[in-house]
Amino acid sequence: MSLPALLLVHGAWHDSSAWPLLASYLPDVDVRTVRLPSTGEDPRLLGDLYADAAHIEAVLGTIGGPAVLLGHSYGGAPVSQTPAVPGLVRVIYLAAMMQEVGDAVLTPTGGVHPWYWDVHETDGDRPGHFGVRDPLEVLYNGVDPQLAKAAAGSLRSQSLASVTQPLTRALWHDVPSSYIVCEQDRAIPAEFQRSMAQHADRVRLIDSGHSPFLSHPEELARLIREEMTI
């Protein structure tokens, strides 16, 4: 039985360089990645939530067959905003924002920025954007120190617009869904993940921090494969 293609959507500050280790444990899967417009070097060039979703939709359109869509962390928001295109058979949320229509990423906090965000409000022609404080502690607990250091060195700015714009659709209403809770997460607490996971058709657990694609890639690949084949 051939497996669907798998499109991996990274979280805030990251890009497609987050995924090669995980992909190496899925050698028989057509793994695709995206680089979201909301993340980058120059704050003046960053896209927003809707640009991210449009990019995901465009990449899905190139697959030409059955596909599974996985969003990590912030990536769950543009994944939810993506239309249920033909061929999309499942959506997987990995420690991700799985929210309802009308919600923004910051809705659960009442618009308050998490302590580990390094926020820069709009200043002249520089739109609002934010980085991350202490990524080794917050994002990469449980990751090999050298690997974590390399990952932290690749992080970029994230647009504030991407976390303040509301969802106008929620893909999980239209496509079968799974949620993978990271039980040792320091960025998005597991308790909050479980509350969002109530929207999902199936819930899985992994005893990892926020980035199991780096700390537990083989176990995460197994969970993803199981969700793709059920």
Q: From N to C, what is the helix and strand string? A: EHEEHEHEEEHHEHEHEHH
Report how far apart the termini are.
12 Å
Kindly provide the radius of gyration, computed on alpha-carbon positions and rounded to a whole number of angstroms: 16 Å
What fraction of the residues are assigned to beta strands by DSSP?
Answer: 15-25%
The total beta strand count reads 10
* Strand line-up in the sheet with most strands: 2-1-4-5-9-10
Largest sheet: 6 strands, parallel
Specify the number of helices.
Answer: 9
Write the layout of secondary structure elements.
Elements: E1 5-9, H1 20-24, E2 31-33, E3 39-40, H2 49-61, E4 67-72, H3 76-81, E5 88-94, E6 117-120, E7 129-132, H4 135-138, H5 145-153, E8 157-159, H6 161-164, E9 177-182, H7 190-197, E10 202-206, H8 212-215, H9 217-229
Parallel strand pairs: 1-2, 1-4, 4-5, 5-9, 9-10
Antiparallel strand pairs: 3-8, 6-7, 7-8
Fold and architecture overview:
By secondary structure, the protein is an alpha/beta fold. The protein is built from 9 helices and 10 strands. It has helices at 20-24, 49-61, 76-81, 135-138, 145-153, 161-164, 190-197, 212-215, 217-229, and strands at residues 5-9, 31-33, 39-40, 67-72, 88-94, 117-120, 129-132, 157-159, 177-182, 202-206. A 6-stranded parallel β-sheet has the order 2-1-4-5-9-10, with helices on both faces. The longest helix has 13 residues, at 49-61. It is globular and about 55 Å long. The mean pLDDT is 97.
